[in-house]
Amino acid sequence: MLRTRLSDALKDSMRAKQERITHTVRLIMAKLKDADIAARPKGITAITDDEILQMMNGMIKQRRESIEMFEKGGRPELAKAEQEEIDIIQTFMPKQMDEAEVTAAVKDAIAQSGATSVKDMGKVMGILKEKYTGKMDFSRVSGVVKQNLG
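Below the sequence we write its predicted structure tokens.
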């Protein structure tokens, strides 16, 4: 499903001569192909949509780090380009959960895992990743988990 959307978006952006979208979707497709190749030794011919979402979350995280570095280095034009790529990648991802939904999901995962301290954070994060991959930013969620466990 997600592969088809990416392929269609690439074709549409090429027809419409939308260079930024074409470039970004090509980056996603290249990363996807690398992930498929890396999965072959395990006997998997293509990664799942959930794994694609995790891959795209990683791409977004890389771009956020780049934005931070570009802003520190006084390169706002490069930071802007990275932000545009983030916006394009996010169009292929499910709607992100708001703060209230994230907090409710964290509390549910804590109850489900029986976590009592920050030492149990891995269990909670595992449950959240299993259920909500692509729907929440896990770098921000870890703070909410720590707050609820601490």
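Residues 45 and 130 are 21 Å apart (CA to CA).
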